[in-house]
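User: Good morning. I'm curious how zinc ion would be positioned relative to this chain. Could you predict the structure with it bound?
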Amino acid sequence: MPCVRYANGFVCMPTIKERRVRVMKCPTCKRRRRFYCWFQEWYGWHMTCTGCGEQWQDGEMCPRPFAPRWRKENISRAKSNIKEMGLWSRKKSSCVTKK
Ligand SMILES: [Zn+2]
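Assistant: Good morning! Here's the predicted structure, ligand included:
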């Protein structure tokens, strides 16, 4: 687990063990969307919808952050992670997974 120096202390970032892209019906968007999913030690699976930016942790919807533009930032982070994995394309596929 890598720890980074942050302000007056250290923050330990649980290692991302596995990353996936899934296509599922988003409960917020009410339509099929691509989700960036990642698995971290201690925290389990996280998912971000690339349509609305909503996040889930181990099946529970994460509280919406009290911050401006959080949806836009979550969406662009999820999309860039999917692009980094080489799995982003305009063509909609039913289910793409990659370890
Ligand atoms: Zn959504």
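Residues 26, 28-29, 33, 49, 51-52, 54 surround zinc ion (CB under 6 Å). The longest helix spans residues 70-84.
Let me know if you'd like a different ligand tried.
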